Amino acid sequence: MQEQFNCSRQKGFTLLEVVIAVAIMGASLAILLGAVNRNLVLASQSKNQSIAQSLAQQKITEIELEGYPEVGQEQGIFEEFPGFSWYVNILPYDIEQLGTEIRIVMVDIAWDEGNRVFKVATAISNHK
């Protein structure tokens, strides 16, 4: 009787190959999720920066429409934009050669609990 040995190799993956493949896929997925998360954070920051810029321009326009501003400081919040607050500092600036008074208006828009601030300044003159 002749014994027949079947030396054919079984088809499939070894446990080591599967573990390595899963590790590579896991690392790739973690990198992709990190990139997506970073993009979401940047988009949110960009949106808030745009809102702050618009609110600063709105505040400066309000001050200009009220007429020549008095020297001083004010602060408040934007009710229509929760989390955003404003700080206005108005300083005198006198240029004798021009014969006019100028007010420097500095507007700070803060959000993210004051951790982020957008600053803008303008000059308003008193036409005599």
What would you say this structure looks like, in words?
The chain has 128 residues and is α+β, with helices and mostly antiparallel strands. 40% of the residues lie in helices and 31% in strands. It is built from one helix and four strands, in the order αββββ. It has a four-stranded antiparallel β-sheet. A hairpin with a 4-residue loop joins strand 3 (100-111) and strand 4 (116-126). The longest helix has 51 residues, at 15-65. The model has no long low-confidence stretch (mean pLDDT 88).
Describe the protein's topology:
Elements: H1 15-65, E1 72-77, E2 85-95, E3 100-111, E4 116-126
Antiparallel strand pairs: 1-2, 2-3, 3-4
- What is the radius of gyration computed over CA atoms, rounded to a whole number of angstroms? 32 Å
Structural class call reads: alpha+beta
Overall strand count: 4
| Biggest sheet statistics | 4 strands, antiparallel
Mean pLDDT score, rounded?
88
Report a brief summary of the structure.
This protein is α+β, with helices and mostly antiparallel strands.
Throw out a few tags for this protein.
4-stranded antiparallel β-sheet; 128 residues; alpha+beta; 4 strands
